[in-house]
Design brief:
The protein is α/β, with parallel strands linked by helices and 242 residues long. It has one domain: Rossmann fold (3-Layer(aba) Sandwich). Helices cover 31% and strands 21% of the residues. Bound molecules: S-adenosylmethionine (SAM).
Length: 242
C-alpha cells in the first residue's frame, strides 16, 4: 500500500517525522498537513498546552479537528494515559480514518503507508499506541466532518484545531461557524489552540469570552493562537508577545 493509492504524497520533515500532502485534482488548492520544519515537533509545540494548562484532566473532553496522520491523537493518549478523558477526533477523509484504525489494530499490510504510521508512533512511548488501541470506540471516538450537525453532546475542555487553512477549508474558520460551535460545546473552562493566527479568529475567540494570547509560532511562523476561557482568569503559562 502506497500513499499514491490514496492521492497523497509523503514528505519527511526536518525532525524526520512524516507528513502528507494531497495530490491536487482539478486544480483544487492543497497544502501540507504540517510545517516542513517538523510534523511531530509542531504538533507537540502547538497542542501540548491544550492538556498542560488544565491542572486536572480527569473527566475532561477534547476535540481534535483533522485526524490526518494522528499525531494529536497520540499526543492526547500520551498526556492522558493515567486518566479518564474523552477525545472526539474528526476526519473528513474516510481513507485516513480507516488506515489509522487498521494501523492501531495491526491490520495494515506491509508497505509505505504502514511505514509512515510506524514512524509517527515511534515518536511516542509504546504505551501511547496501546492506550489508543484500547480506547478506540470507547473514549477515543472517531467522527467524520466537523460541522454544527456533528458536534458531540458534551462540554469540551480543549480544542486541537488542526484543520487545513482557510484557503482549503474556509467553512471551518468562518466567524459565524466558530461562534455557534463554541457556544454549543465549549466548556466554561476551555483551552483552544491552533497554528493559525488571524485577527478574525482572535476577535471571534475574544467575543466568546476567551483570553487570547498570540504566542510565538512554530519555527518560521510568526505567531499562533492559544486561548483560554476560565471562570476566574489567570495569566497563561506561556511566553507571550505584546
Ligand atoms: C492539517 S491536516 C491535520 C493533521 C493532523 N492533525 C495530524 O496530526 O496529522 C487537516 C486534516 O483535516 C481534515 N479535514 C478537512 N476538512 C475537515 C472537516 N470539515 N472535518 C474534519 N476533518 C476535516 C483533512 O482531511 C486533513 O486530514
Amino acid at each position: 500500500m502506497n500513499w499514491k493509492d490514496f492521492a497523497f504524497e509523503q514528505i519527511i520533515t526536518d525532525d524526520q517525522s512524516p507528513t502528507l500532502k494531497p495530490i491536487a485534482t482539478n486544480g483544487a488548492p492543497t497544502e501540507h498537513m504540517h510545517h516542513r520544519g517538523g510534523a511531530y515537533s509542531e504538533s507537540v509545540y502547538i497542542y501540548s498546552p491544550v492538556f498542560d494548562l488544565h491542572a486536572e484532566l480527569s473527566g475532561k473532553a477534547f476535540v481534535s479537528v483533522g485526524l490526518g496522520l494522528g499525531y494529536n491523537e497520540f499526543l492526547w493518549s500520551q498526556k492522558t494515559i493515567a486518566t479518564q478523558t474523552t477525545l472526539f477526533s474528526f476526519e473528513r477523509n474516510p481513507d485516513l480514518q480507516e488506515l489509522f484504525v487498521a494501523f492501531l489494530k495491526g491490520e495494515l499490510p506491509d508497505g509505505e503507508v504502514k511505514d509512515t504510521y510506524e514512524m509517527v508512533a515511534k515518536f511516542f512511548p509504546p504505551e501511547a499506541r496501546e492506550n489508543l488501541r484500547n480506547k478506540l470506540g470507547k473514549t477515543l471516538i472517531l467522527k467524520t466532518d466537523f460541522s454544527l450537525q456533528s458536534l458531540p453532546n458534551v462540554a469540551v475542555h480543549g480544542f486541537i484545531y488542526d484543520a487545513y487553512s482557510s484557503k482549503v477549508s474556509p467553512e471551518l474558520w468562518q466567524e459565524d461557524f466558530l461562534k455557534k460551535m463554541l457556544a454549543q460545546i465549549a466548556a466554561d473552562d476551555c483551552v483552544f489552540s491552533t497554528y493559525s493566527c488571524t485577527s478574525r479568529l482572535k476577535n471571534t475567540l475574544i467575543e466568546m469570552n476567551f483570553q487570547v494570547d498570540r504566542i510565538k509560532g512554530f519555527q518560521s511562523k510568526k505567531h499562533s493562537v492559544l486561548a483560554r476561557r476560565q471562570e476566574q482568569p489567570e495569566p497563561l503559562l506561556v511566553d507571550q508577545f505584546s
